[in-house]
């Protein structure tokens, strides 16, 4: 069976170019000796680091990016983004300064760009980056355009990529100056019969029309001028996309960091953006290049663990007449880097997606194994060597059930266990990959980070506090291990497993227990009993109660309560017990207070805004954390910021039902 080539239709240029209102000085001829090169067909785009971290450890998982020259880049990367053009020192106009510290001279750099151009590969200069401090002012248009042209003529760049992030997007007059300058540069080269490439790489939340740092002015201002846009679908954690609401595991809101719904996320993010719906700026599908990280060290989240998820989404989009232009990754250096165990990533990204993007019909290709990573687990932890590991072959499809594993792991014994994975396709081509599983003693409880009572999550540029898979955290005297990326409280859900109750040597924490009813009628007295709390190696010396986060003066194990009408709904009590050596433990207990007839007392919701879907024209329908709405006879509270197109009553983790509304 031969897999269909990814659509290779050429994208026609449709430019509506104005006339420059300022003059461009004459420049020396391009030292690279090449015309501006545009990629033919589909794009596999990678960013190249204009720096070298010789000490390593610069990855999100403490891996090390590679220090490479342009000539070492795999030829399947037919678009190379040079990172970055920045403002330097006191100079307001951004420029590019080559880092020559890792052995490449200016002339080497020029010659290597020329070599890539001769191979039909484009090399663009990327403006900005995550730490850029660009603040252009009106009147800088001519100077900025001149600097871009100077760099193109000096080095041989084929275009410019806008990669402004966070505050730099809307800082000073950046939107106006950059847009106008690029129009001028585009016209300058078109007058010579050349197409200067304009590309962009916004973080996908900034593709929303009303985002704080929206790319609206760049995209709409350069409509007809830009060649493609490569949104970054990574490092955005729980922000996501509205998808299909017809039911199923991946129904409704799909967060970017959901590995189980990755194919659906790729499909719906592309569909919504290419159609300009769900509040997004419209970008035609044939100008969309899908941005994903090269591996787990390249980004905090957003990796495609199973390439088949992307293949399936792209194939579905193509069947529906919405083929994409290609794939982008951050970064080439990470694709060629190493993990924290000094094991190379060995260009797995380009080896996986290069044949898919460019096609290789007539030649059988080797299968691809995905999901293998070297890990360290605590002794006693359950381990399944096949969990999360998949195999795919372009000709034969899914080969996951044909994976062979040599070696085994005994999680009851501390040690280092090598595994060897292999899979063979129908024509006999085999792929193999090693894996190291380290089984370690559980760290002493005092050596594990305490749960820090994370503050509210902020998905619009602020902190998003979390742990990664296999991270350890101490909570209420016990050690827990994260089973996947999570921001939840240890022990509160299935994302955590208990690995050590910390009952070894030394004083151990007491155990807090509350016995009592989970519901009560108004005016009926109840008793919450903490006498079942215990301390195996000492004695409990204090009891401290809270009611809905408010401390109570009671310091005894018995709490007697009578509720009034204003207490209707959920009432959360906590009991903290402390032993004779100062260790404590806390437990919570919820009592739902109802009316005398047994039903929760309804509220008057007449003055409360009714829930509404997002309206791009007005900007209404986006809800912040703790926002209150009425919907279908009930009162709801939003559980997250920037929540939209998630109907109350369909997802409890997004909308919390508080009480019924009076009819």
From TrEMBL:
Q: What is its EC number?
A: 3.2.1.14
The terms under GO molecular function for this entry are:
endochitinase activity
Q: Which residues form the GH18 domain?
A: 42-347
- Broad EC category: hydrolase
Q: Which Pfam families match?
A: Bact_surface_Ig-like, CBM_5_12_2, Glyco_hydro_18, K319L-like_PKD
Q: Which residues form the PKD domain?
A: 509-600
Which InterPro entries does the UniProt record give?
CBM5/12, CBM_5_12_2, CBM_sf_5/12, Chitinase_II/V-like_cat, Cry22Aa_Ig-like, GH, Glyco_hydro18_cat, Glyco_hydro_18_chit_AS
> Keywords, A to Z?
Carbohydrate metabolism, Glycosidase, Hydrolase, Signal
Task: Please name the Gene3D superfamilies in this protein's record.
Answer: Carbohydrate-binding module superfamily 5/12, Glycosidases, Immunoglobulins
Q: Which domain of life is it from?
A: Bacteria
SMART domains hit by this protein: ChtBD3 (SM00495), Glyco_18 (SM00636), PKD (SM00089)
Q: Which residues form the signal peptide?
A: 1-28
Q: Which PROSITE patterns would you find in this protein's record? A: GH18_1, GH18_2, PKD, PROKAR_LIPOPROTEIN
What's the protein name?
chitinase
